[in-house]
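Lab notebook, bench 4. Still working through the backlog of constructs that have no structural model yet. Next entry is a single chain of 495 residues. Request: give me the structure tokens for it.
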Amino acid sequence: MVVRRALVPLLGSLFVASAGCSGGGGGGAPKTSPTSMPTPAPTATPTSGPTGTPTMTPTPMPIVTASPTPMPTSPPAGPALANPARPLHNNDSFAYSGSTQQTFVYTGASPKPSSSTLFAVKQNIAVTSNATFNGTSGLYDFKTAETDTSPLQSISISTDTYYGTVAGVGSTYLVDYGYASSDSNGEKFIVTYANPGPTSGLIDVLPETSGTAWSNSGAQTIAQSESSGFTASRAYAADGSYTDTSNYPQAGAARPTATPLVATIATNADGSATYNLPLFGPPNATVSYSAPASNGAISIVLTAPGSTPQSPPVVVQSAAVGAWFQLPLRLYQELDRDNGAVAIPAACNVPPSFGSQANQIEQKSVRVDPVLGTLDTFDQLSYVVPVTGVVCVQLQDRTLTYYDYSGQGSAGPTGISFAGGNSPFETATLATTIGLTGATIQPMSLRRSSVEAQSGFRLANARANFLSTLEHRRIAAQRRAFDRLQTMIRERIAR
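Model written out:
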């Protein structure tokens, strides 16, 4: 009981609102109009990395007070290459190589600390048919062995991604049912897309036609586990709202035995959310995030347990920040399109034997997380050649972080800082380019059936491991919030 009472003044300095917004319940307004539309973010510019390794350098993008609506990179370039079928067979195999570059810039301080890491990427894919995933049979399993190597470490990743086809009116849909991955660091993910079809997990439409467009919903479930014993599960609704449950293996600070601590997050479509997390065991502390008001102000309130089990919760501190996303808020948006025939980028390093032109399939999305305070933009470009399939994939993700749980912000090492408007604390980019280096494609005479010969698809499997990396980054940010409170409590008890 004494510990809980002491927590009130300790936690009172947790929340600091910055970037032109007042704390202590003040009504800060965004620095620019929350209804202003930004200039669409340009596509990353392909370049060559060190020692000739292909990479993709992110083009500088303006920081805006909005979540940009996904827009195609450019109008369709021209008619798509004739591609009536892309056969797939049980024993097809593919090899890709390229690079991934991770870049972080902490913009909440001057000078701005930054880091950049370049990984050489190699992928080998073996295809098996008649696979089953999440209760659905008859799928194609792209079993991928990937190695990411940097000067400081090498990571091995094993991924099974499950694809299938769905018949449409005058077309055939290639859909992604989900994937399971594990890496050499002991981290595992299982991602499942809800009701794969024309609006969920849709990857491509045959016959490929320049200008064909579609949009997937945000619905999916994610399960993660680590060798440390940490587990997390998240369920996204179609509109991008989600619920999350994370189990931390640490012992409660006020308990003599190792009791797992459970934290939960619930977000709503209007941007309101609740982060319920244990301080040292039940009852939990709660961070509440309001939906943005008409002037764009967001209220954030920390409530801590009372001094006794019978005492009402205590409002420790409140803050207000300006909206850092476009209003009206949409937590998830996606726009995908066949951009027609284009030249295969030189950065892909694709051998001339696979051709010089390909149909460009683009998938763009924007996701807002009202609890972590992140605005995430994702762009994937796939280059598809008739008969061979995908010969190159370029992926870029850019995340702006407006809530600083790291202790580097204006609240200092003992608090949590919140920014709004045009002032994110961190900008992180992740860019990957991989190109086809070799393929073994079974002849038509060996195909099991005409269905397999006509409705199958060949594709690179870069997307699953790229998204797993992004999910790892998200979980790391979520854990920073949890660890900040746990560390502060342990230090207080030790005094």
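Notes after review: The radius of gyration is 24 Å. The longest helix spans residues 462-494. Flag for follow-up if needed.
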